[in-house]
């Protein structure tokens, strides 16, 4: 018997699923399912997976062998369970809104304010996670921003509630462009099963400001008890999310700010110690290469981001000519305050035209105010030294210490904007998922 279960897909976290299969005694066939006592039924087996495993498959189906309870393999064949995922129509619908403000307070001394708008959603634990932000409107106390497109499933008010707000002008003044405000666009889950991939890349800070890795108070200290340091945690937690979206699971991994075996300080060296191949296999491969590098690389400095961003951008740029279905994500884990801020801005502005997003995790207690500038969460896009403005925001920065004291995880805060950045790039290039898949999910 097929039964549909609605699950809210969240790209930014690993969502484990456990399926228990029971044989329901015939005398209970007319009893509502929710009132059944499972202890009265015969247990047939269980299967586990994560939601990403299913949605990343081209067929969006996954067949799992049933095991005994607690995942123990049975000596006899207990059968198999096939799970199929399909996106609901409501989750693919968008609401387009035009938002404006009136009579804002002037915060500037010699000119009018330069306002922008950031919309966040409240998560169950009580924290807030940003959904989108507008452009900056300069010198204007009555700004009207460009139309925003928000997925209906992310809205915490119904479309009717938004209309009511607009009519009553209570709490917010929302201008809806037309009565037919809802429309469908290709979603993130249209692209992934039709062959689009997220290619994960990592760059680790090997500057001396991290402290001697032999000392327990170092950010690079490998605890013999197995307790992960901040670098290991960031690699594991972010990598676990991405591993299902990259078919070969070969991840480029670099270090920067370290003195390698040949005695030279490098701001982009292969984490695995190879002079040629920079890819490692799986998240476990990154972890192993990182641990080895701590024995083979001396911590040095300064902290430069430009070289690793340019290397990642070169890989992303080369892919465009032969494969438009790849999107690259570079995770930079760092302690130090960067010393090449303008060069980094220039690299990011150039990279904003490429299929690339950059995630930055700040570890330790350093002053990360410059990172906030790179994030462009103030609504103002980065500008290069030659006056070029980034075509889109491709950076998300999260200081690990801030998230520890809040209610959402580092990974949630870091990855929340990524599907939107992916879609913005694909739509700007008019790159569509395969027609067959798009037709099947739209039905």
From TrEMBL:
A GO cellular component entry from the record: plasma membrane
SUPFAM superfamilies xrefs: C2 domain (Calcium/lipid-binding domain, CaLB), vWA-like
Entry keyword set: Repeat
UniProt xrefs under SMART domains: VWA
Start and end residues of each VWFA domain: 197-394
Pfam families named in the record: C2 (PF00168), Copine (PF07002)
GO biological process terms on file: cellular response to calcium ion
Molecular functions per Gene Ontology: calcium-dependent phospholipid binding
Top-level taxon of origin: Eukaryota
InterPro entries attached to this UniProt entry: C2_dom (IPR000008), C2_domain_sf (IPR035892), C2B_Copine (IPR037768), Copine (IPR045052), Copine_C (IPR010734), VWF_A (IPR002035), vWFA_dom_sf (IPR036465)
UniProt entry tagged with the keyword Repeat: yes
Protein family (similarity comment): Belongs to the copine family.
Stated name of the protein: VWFA domain-containing protein
Organismal lineage: Eukaryota, Viridiplantae, Streptophyta, Embryophyta, Tracheophyta
